[in-house]
Every structure is written in structure tokens, then in C-alpha cells.
Specification:
The protein is built from three helices and two strands. The chain has 99 residues and is mostly helical. Strands 1-2 form a two-stranded antiparallel ribbon. Strand 1 and strand 2 form a beta hairpin. It has a domain of 39 residues.
Length: 99
Amino acid sequence: MTLTRDQVRHVALLARLGLKDGEEDFYAEQLSRILEHIDRLSEVDTEAIPPTAQVVEVRNVMRDDEPRPSLPQEAAIANAPEADGGFLVVKPIQESDPG
């Protein structure tokens, strides 16, 4: 597959890349070669390979989510710089009146 200069400019626009004069031909050749390599993948027989096949085993490394005792609220806020009514007080991250 050979890309045209217009197609390269379009891809650059979508990717928000600025191209200098004359770069369209360079990238057209480079991208065309990449697409040719990708086209070669269609020649590989993948009928016996399940769609979710992995080269390495994929497994969940997280532990099961089981409820267990946690810190009491008083202990959790004991070292907080500021608390009010059992809750942590933090600085706002957005102004209350954006205007």
C-alpha cells in the first residue's frame, strides 16, 4: 500500500503533527513500508489460535477482596492536620465561584 502526500498530511493533521516542506514524501515512504509489513501479517494462518491467546500467562495478581477490620474513625483522623465532625478537612482544589 502506497500512501499519497495528501494522506500523509491528513494523518499528520489527525495526530496534530506539524510537517515541514518536503517531509510528506519522506513520511509517505516510511508509513507505506510500515503498512506493507502489517499486510504481511494477513498471510499468517491464525485459524487455530484463539482470539485471546497470549504469549505469556495472564493471571490476576490481586488478592481476593475480603472484608476485614480496619482503623476506627477516631484513629484514622487522629494525626490529621484538621478534622471536623469526624471528617478530614482538606483545601479545595477548585474555587467555589469560578468567575
